[in-house]
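Hypothesis: this fold can be encoded by more than one sequence.
Test: take the structure tokens below, design a sequence, compare later.
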């Protein structure tokens, strides 16, 4: 008996992991992507297994901070001028989600998901022979103002209430824990049981290679349309691509920031009351906008930090990778194909110098990256 076929559209880390799980369940899986595997957001993220990230972005504090910082050159949150009008409908939905009841519902749902995150990653990496790509790095959330101690203690109580082990450290204890940190840092919240990947792009490619070794198929093609076929003798999904029309029993969309456009271009082939076949539009409206982030990776960094570090003041993440030290920052809401804002990179250099002692970031030669993620 032949296996049921399924197309996974999008070959980032989400698509690759989805394909592996479906393959393990018994499907004949084809990954379809217009580019190389894991070449977009999966290539340049912060490499953080972020189970501690349970607080939704839609909080009154975050919204007020975003408004205050909108016109600041170094603001972590930006709406590009060419996207301001288009961003408004999504922004209104975002404001509604800041209501206390909705925030609490979001936290509870995220905690339920994160309950299985570490076990799922461990099982996947072990099954594919890649368990050495994940390790316990420890995690420091840091603050630069003396006056923030009560804020840090309150955050500790919240995180412990969610079941996360963490401790408040201040003064010299911070630099005993992480000598590379700038002496501008006044307080930190330390999580001893935080995991990260050695390098996100390498991990994704290793998982992709395993998928192919196990009989998976990869087609490099742009997908422009989906059609669900619900006729007695002809059921399944027709996938229109730059290589032509492809047919599968089922399809899964894992296209990240591009998912919304494809889901707005879905048709359904049905038989009407007269018995004739007709095409019905089955558009899915998803409240999703593209958000992009930037990073710099310093392959020859003069300073090596040991822990994953998040600056609560600067809204950025520092990650020690086997390919160099990385700083990741910015939430920029933009038109999906607009060009990167080049001044973001020198801004990241300045942040790196402010957080890491003796970094001299402007004397380094980091690699640059901009990636699009769905929000």
């Amino acid at each position: 008996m032949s296996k049921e076929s399924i197309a996974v559209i999008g070959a980032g880390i989400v698509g690759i992991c989805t394909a592996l799980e479906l393959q393990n369940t018994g499907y004949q899986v084809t990954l379809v992507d217009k580019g190389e595997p894991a070449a977009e957001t999966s290539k340049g993220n912060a490499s953080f297994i972020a189970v501690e990230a349970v607080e939704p972005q839609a909080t009154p504090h975050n919204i007020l901070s975003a408004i205050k910082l909108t016109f600041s050159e170094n603001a972590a949150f930006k709406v590009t001028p060419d996207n301001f009008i288009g961003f408004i409908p999504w922004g209104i939905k975002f404001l509604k989600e800041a209501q206390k009841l909705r925030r609490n519902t979001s936290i509870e749902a995220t905690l339920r998901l994160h309950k299985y995150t570490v076990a799922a990653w461990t099982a996947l990496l072990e099954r594919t022979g890649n368990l050495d790509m994940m390790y316990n790095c420890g995690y420091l959330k840091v603050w630069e103002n003396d006056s923030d101690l009560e804020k840090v203690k309150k955050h500790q109580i919240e995180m412990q209430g969610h079941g996360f082990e963490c401790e408040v450290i201040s003064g010299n204890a911070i630099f005993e824990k992480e000598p590379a940190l700038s002496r501008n840092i006044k307080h930190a919240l330390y999580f001893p049981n935080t995991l990260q990947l050695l390098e996100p792009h390498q991990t994704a490619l290793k998982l992709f290679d395993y998928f192919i070794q196990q009989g998976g198929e990869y087609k490099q093609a742009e997908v422009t349309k989906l059609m669900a076929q619900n006729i007695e003798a002809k059921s399944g999904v027709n996938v229109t691509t730059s290589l032509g029309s492809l047919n599968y029993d089922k399809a899964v969309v894992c296209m990240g920031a591009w998912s919304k456009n494809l889901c707005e271009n879905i048709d359904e082939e049905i038989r009407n009351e007269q018995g004739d076949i007709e095409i019905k539009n089955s558009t899915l409206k998803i409240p999703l906008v593209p958000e992009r982030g930037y990073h710099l990776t310093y392959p020859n960094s003069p300073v090596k930090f040991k822990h994953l570090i998040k600056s609560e003041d600067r809204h950025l993440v520092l990650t020690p990778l086997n390919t160099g030290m990385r700083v990741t920052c910015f939430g920029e809401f933009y038109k999906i194909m607009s060009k990167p804002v080049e001044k973001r990179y020198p801004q990241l250099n300045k942040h790196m110098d402010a957080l890491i002692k003796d970094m001299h970031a402007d004397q380094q030669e980091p690699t640059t990256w901009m990636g699009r993620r769905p929000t």
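The longest strand covers residues 324-333. The radius of gyration is 23 Å.
Hypothesis status: open.
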